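Weekly structure sync - notes
Attendees: PM, LS, DV (DV joined late)
Agenda: review two folding runs queued last week.

Item 1: First target. Sequence and C-alpha cells pasted below for the record.
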Amino acid sequence: MRYAIEQYDKHGFLKAPKWLWLGWIFLAKAWVVFVVAGASRDSGSKILSIVYPDHTMLYLGLAMGLPSMVLMWLFSLRNPDRAWLNRVVSWGGGITLATSIAQLIQTLYHIYLDNGAFSWANGATMLLLMWFVLYLTKSRSVSDCLQTPPDV
C-alpha cells in the first residue's frame, strides 16, 4: 500500500495533495482578486485597478483561472456513482498543465510588453508557474489522485 488510509476519502478516492490545491488556487489568482475586490465594496474598484490596470488582463485571467476553479469543484464531487465526473477529473492533470503553460506564456508576454524590464511580480509568477509545471509532471501523488480507482 503506497498511501496511508487517511489519505483516502470516504469513497475510496485519493485526496489531492496540498500543493496541488495551492497550485490550483494560484492558477485562479484572478478569481481570488475579483472576490476580494467584491468583498471590499468601497475600495473594490481601486483594488482591481491596482492589480489589473488593464481590464482585458483581468478578463483573460478570469478565463484562464476557470479550468482550475471547475477542477477544484469537480474534485470535491467525486463519487463512485458519477463515472462521467470521475473521467473529467482524470483529465485534470493535462488541463492543469495546459493552463499553467498558458499562464507562463501570458507572463512572458507581459515581460515582452515591458520591453524586458524586470519586475518582482512577473519574476515570482514565472518561478511559481515553472515549479508548479515541474510538480505536475514529476509528482506521483498528483497523477495517482487524479486517476479513477480501478474498482469504480
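Item 2: Second target, run right after the first with the same settings.
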Amino acid sequence: MATCDKTIFNRLKRTEGQLRGIQKMLEENQDCADVVTQLSAVRSSVDHIMGIIVAENLKQCLENPEPDHTQQQAKIEKAINLIVKK
C-alpha cells in the first residue's frame, strides 16, 4: 500500500483539521446546521479514504493472486465485504 500512503495521510490530516474546526464551532456555539454540514463533509472524507484503501487492497489481490484459489476467493470476498459493510 506504499503507493497511496502519502495520499491517505494527507487526506487524514485534512480530515483531522476539519474535526478540529468542528470542535471549535461547537465551543463557539455556532449554528447546528453549519456543524452538521461540516460533520457530513468529514463523513464523506472518511468514506473516500476507506474507498481508496479498499480499492488498493482489491487491486493487490487481483495483481498478486494467492496460489490457492480458495484463499484468493476469500481475500476478494473480504475486500468486497469491506465496501458493502456500513
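Discussion on item 2: The first helix runs from residue 5 to 27.
Action: LS to circulate a short write-up before next sync.
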